[in-house]
Amino acid sequence: MGTIGVDCAVKLHRGLGPGLLEVVYETVLARQLEQAGLTVERQVPVRIEFEGVVFEEGFRADIVINKLVILEMKSVEKIHPVHKKQILTYLKLSGLKLGYLLNFGEELMKNGITRVINGQL
């Protein structure tokens, strides 16, 4: 996500404030990232593959940037371990290495950014 993404998330949080529905932040953040020149996909299917069988009823990643980084939006009072497991699941199933859990429910956005690396929890 880098500096551009963090700056966009912080700017968005300052502008809209905490506690709105996740889809609001997802929609606006995707647009900001596109305007910054990044390739952005929203609600990207993450399928399950096991023993050669593909299950299309997998999950959906909120935002994928440049086909490299997953952003998962939350708007909750507190991040719990299950939220980190959710993005780690998306990373493992997609084969991507880096993701960010963005909690727009925090009073300060800098406290709501969690970096998750595939292979580490």
Count of individual helical segments: 3
How many separate domains? Answer: 1
Helix content: 25-40%
Query: What would the principal axes of the Cα set say about the shape?
Result: globular
Low-confidence stretches: none
Instruction: Going across the biggest sheet, name each strand in turn.
Output: 1-2-3-4-5
The secondary-structure element order is HHEEEHEE
Report on the architecture of this protein:
It is built from three helices and five strands; from the N terminus they run ααβββαββ. The chain has about 120 residues and is of the alpha+beta class. The two termini are about 20 Å apart. The protein has helices spanning about 1-15, 20-35, 80-95; strands at about 40-50, 55-65, 70-75, 100-105, 115. β1 and β2 (about 55-65) form a beta hairpin. The longest helix is centred in the first third of the chain and has 15 residues, at about 1-15. The mean pLDDT is about 90. The chain is about 35% helix and about 35% strand.
